Amino acid sequence: MSILVARHLGVDQFGVYAIAMSAGFFITILLDGGFIALLQRESALASLDIAIEDQTLSRYAFGYTLLLVAILILMAIINPFEQDLTTLFAIIFAFCPVVLIAQSMSVLRGQGRLARDAFLQVMTRFLTAFFVVTFILYGFDSPSSVLFAQGIGGYVVCFVLMFRSKIKPIFLIPWKIFRVTIPLAAWAIACGLYARSDLLLCRLFDIPRSDVGEYGVACRLVEALQVFGGPVAIVLLRKFRMSQLSIEVSTGKILNALYLALFIGSIICVCAFLFSSTIIPFFFGEQYSASVQLFEVLTIGFIFFLGNTVLFQAFLALELQRLLMSITVVAAIFNVTLNAIALPIYGIEVCAWISVLTQLLLLLLLRFYFLKHKNK
């Protein structure tokens, strides 16, 4: 779908779309509030300090998301930053169902019902692609129209899920839930900052849309590779959680998984270097030829991304969310600060290298503090 959108919108408009997707990523984090990670963890093995049924926890998550949607709609109407209203509503419309679906699937993943989870993912992607293609064929081909089309596909899946499960939201959420979700939400926000803030800073510093579009294509391709890390994360979190092993016992298994992830990432990186100069112009067109070099740089960071994925699941399974939050906040500050300093001077190319450095810093910090905590 990204290929079709990129070719049809062109470099300039795809830059606008990429910025909107980055903004939507942050909205997704706000709408979730840390419940996705919590639902998956608690569905695998309930924590003693929470001890709430999966369905009740899902109702809390549903209620929280609906409240945040209402607040975001109100803020969009007020529009304090004088942004395009159509784009704002399109982003909220598109990413609300993303959160609701992800929360439902996180329960399935925690319970080990991976076949049903995979079916929902396939159905969601198919319906989203179907409506996007339909909109484009009928001439609704602006970035906002594409976002509205994505949202329609998501709401169809949401309707099926809500109709079958009959989950009713609970809006009064106890403090013991927020005490866990706040660090998880802060962790997710920090991850979003070091992963997506560069595209938002491009808008702030008036980087040419064509440059943003080329970088956006490279980022979307790397995100396509990162999809392969999703199943790994699902299996690892459930495995680490269900084992109920102490850090001392599980260290060997976690480090072995880390080294295997780094090895697989290195192989994928080499393949990307070999074939990127052919694949990108072929699928996206010659107008995105400058994306090749950016993509090659970003794939180096993909090596460290897979390693970080393993360590993320270890920290979450062992209920070290506060330590995880602190480490990712440091990485986010490092990333945003460097981008804010270097982007106006060196242009879009420096964002790719800063992304790689951030992933490497995060990997080193996670491994260091994991081993340090183990030795306590």
Give the SSE layout:
Elements: H1 2-32, H2 35-44, H3 54-78, H4 85-111, H5 114-137, H6 143-165, H7 175-204, H8 209-226, H9 229-243, H10 247-284, H11 291-317, H12 321-346, H13 349-374
Helix pairs in contact: 1-4, 1-6, 1-7, 1-8, 2-3, 2-4, 3-4, 4-5, 4-6, 5-6, 7-12, 8-11, 9-11, 10-11, 11-13, 12-13
Shape: globular
CA radius of gyration: 20 Å
The N- and C-terminal alpha carbons lie at a distance of: 48 Å
List the domain count as a whole number. Answer: 2
- The percent range for strand residues is under 5%
Low-confidence stretches: none
Question: How many helix segments?
Answer: 13
Average pLDDT confidence is 86
| Strand tally | 0
Provide a descriptive summary of the structure in words.
With 376 residues, this protein is an all-alpha fold. The protein folds into two domains: 1-173, no CATH class; 206-376, no CATH class. 85% of the residues lie in helices and 0% in strands. The chain is built from 13 helices and no strands. Helix 8 (209-226) crosses helix 11 and helix 10 (247-284) runs antiparallel to helix 11.
Which descriptors would you attach to this protein?
376 residues; 2 domains; 13 helices; single chain
Q: What is the gist of this entry?
A:
The chain is mainly alpha-helical and 376 residues long. The protein has helices spanning 2-32, 35-44, 54-78, 85-111, 114-137, 143-165, 175-204, 209-226, 229-243, 247-284, 291-317, 321-346, 349-374.
